[in-house]
Fold this protein.
Amino acid sequence: MEQLPLFLTDKPESKEAYRRIIAETADAVAASFEDSTAYSGPTPQELKELIKVKEILPESGLGWQTVLERLKKQILPNFLRTPSTDYMAHLHSPATIESIASELVLSTFNQSMDSWDQSPVATEIEVEVIKMLCSLYGFKPESGADGVFTSGGSQSNQTAIILARDWFCNTKLNYDVKKHGLPENFRKLRMYTSEISHFSMEKSAHILGLGYESVVKVPVDKQKRMDTAALAALIEADVKNGNIPFLVVATIGTTDFGSIDQVSEIAPLCSKYGMWLHADAAYGSGVILSQKYKQRIAGLELCDSITVDFHKMFLLPISSSAVLVKDGSTFDALTIHADYLNRTEDEEDGYTNLVDKSLQTTRRFDALKVWVAFQTRGKDGWNKIISTSMENAAYLYEKLLNDGDFAVVTKPEISSVVFRLKGGDEINKKVRRKLIHGHGVVIGQTVSDGFVCLKFTLLNPLITHDKLDSLVELIRKLGKTDV
Ligand SMILES: Cc1ncc(COP(=O)(O)O)c(C=O)c1O
């Protein structure tokens, strides 16, 4: 059995092994894209059988070639192929080829972003990418705007909620949460978000010691946007009742519908009551790169913080997300010095330790993927990608609206279409399962207004109108055939 070098080093034999193994892996992955469907079809039980090996940790190593063969036989054919135009289930995108190459680079060097001495050039790149992003969304780095990469939208939202809570307590209640823990009247703190916002709001409220009861769910209108009049009434009633509103989270692209809360209406309310305004633009942040549609997310610069996810509309590998903050000094909530890592004098001498802004300590160099993908495709390329997915959603909506077999929930503002086959919840559920196991087609399922619905999340710009037409016909046919 071949003795594999441990690492890529300056030695010729290690370079040769690195090149060969990466090439063999790339060949195996490419070969596994045998057909155009998204999934090979096995049920959970069948998969459990298929992936069985005698031992995952054998007494003696089996060597790379044996493991590669197992990978080829047991795992690669059964991966979900997100680049397939038959995949449109979730806000989980295919990854562009150049961003996969970036993953190779960042994993090979394995930088950790916590301190400058672990990631010198990576730190400087992340700082530059954050500056560019702040400017893109209307925040001014020269006036103190800042941000940090995170593990995803949930962590970006959580970070923003922590900063909002600490800022509010510091500046409005003259109380230092970082030092003393929650204030005595913490049960009165309230944050507001639409009833269809992402569950990371409640999860964060729980983790922050505020509990679900601190999250006030604001009703949505017919277009699934936060009802701003209802928001105003809820805040006012809370103030009258002695509660303490500190934060509104506007969703810029709800998870199911892609609906966009109206920041220009919400921002004045936040100013009036001295609240922080966070935009959860995990989904909708990509719209900024569509020349035709970017107006739909106008007003983000009015917010105090913004969640931007690159592993959704921006088609980058998981994970890649950032939280941007208008006033970077609020990151002080997360800064704690350790003698071994982020000494205070480092900062004075110009050494940036990004751990000062992050919930994580060891952290991936995910900013590299943005640096590579933005430069590779440029504004033109990204405009085409984002606009195409949005136009696909508009096309599908019109088609379903005029088809008597289907009910469509709401006009898409981004790239998701939620609809159902008329005929009941069970039919819709069965159709989705038949699509996965019988046709390799993976679409979403959710509930809207009490009905089980199907969902197309159209992030992949390779999806064509013809493809959408044929999937609609397939769904109609499967709905009519008995299971
Ligand atoms: C609106 C919204 N916010 C936040 C998230 C969480 O993002 P992540 O899965 O990257 O943690 C999602 C996930 O789909 C989302 O749709």
Observations:
- The chain has a mean pLDDT of 97.
- The longest strand covers residues 244-251.
- Residues 91, 152-154, 157, 198, 200, 251, 253-255, 280, 282-283, 309, 321 surround pyridoxal-5'-phosphate (CB under 6 Å).
- The two ends are 50 Å apart (CA to CA).
